[in-house]
Design brief:
210 residues; 4-stranded antiparallel β-sheet; globular; 2 domains; 5-stranded antiparallel β-sheet; Ribosomal Protein L22, Chain A; 4 helices
């Protein structure tokens, strides 16, 4: 299937979503890997993990138009080796999502709605947040909250943030496409972010760029 979404969101950010339908050899043939990257790839024992890893790099090449290595810091935050773009990455099941910007901070999260997230909701939802009482929309609403907080966590460089205490999502009515507001609170910060979200089949995707 390959690239199913490639969209310039504004002047600063571009999103890409890749649906993995290719086999290992097909994905591998689309990129050039360094010897270090080959070693990393070969160390993965699970084929699906290899496909995810390859799809990220194929997607980055599609979005940037060039072959550039992805590196990670000690907190597992990704960077491009040539520093041409800031980047955020997410994958779930057969989809991979990447958000890039030449100079803005970025965060993206993608989740397949596969389980009863309400069982763990108390671990990331706090008393200041509102969740629908409609049982039909409950799971979708919770997944938007989870993806939004993951996006905030990533855009803030994963620096010691507690999902329940430090990340707040202001009340919103869930829809297939929407915009919501998130707050990042802490002893040395009080920031507000606009987050965009959309649903694609049984997936939720949330992104922010600031």
């Amino acid at each position: 299937m390959g690239l199913i979404i490639h969209k310039k969101l504004n002047r600063e950010c571009t999103i890409g979503v890749w649906q993995i339908a290719e086999d290992y050899d097909d994905l591998l043939s689309r990129i050039e890997l360094s010897s270090e990257e080959v070693d990393i790839l070969n160390n993965f024992r699970n084929l699906n993990r290899k496909l995810e890893w390859l799809s990220v790099r194929v997607l980055v090449r599609e979005l940037t138009g060039k072959n550039t290595q992805i590196i990670y810091n000690q907190d597992r935050k990704p960077f491009l080796a040539d520093n041409s773009y800031r980047i955020s990455i997410s994958h779930s099941r057969r989809l991979t999502a990447v958000l890039i910007s030449p100079d803005k901070r970025v965060g993206i999260d993608l989740e397949y709605m596969s389980h009863r997230i309400s069982k763990i909701a108390d671990k990331f939802i706090n008393e200041a947040e509102e969740i629908t009482h409609n049982p039909v929309k409950l799971r979708f609403h919770l997944y938007i909250h989870w993806c939004a907080k993951e996006s905030l966590y990533k855009i803030c460089d994963k620096q010691g943030l507690n999902f329940r205490q430090n990340l707040i999502i202001r009340p919103f009515v869930p829809a297939r496409v929407g915009v919501l507001t998130g707050l990042v609170l802490g002893p040395d910060r009080n920031e507000e972010y606009e987050l965009n979200y959309f649903r694609k089949n049984n997936y939720v995707i949330v992104w922010c760029c600031k």
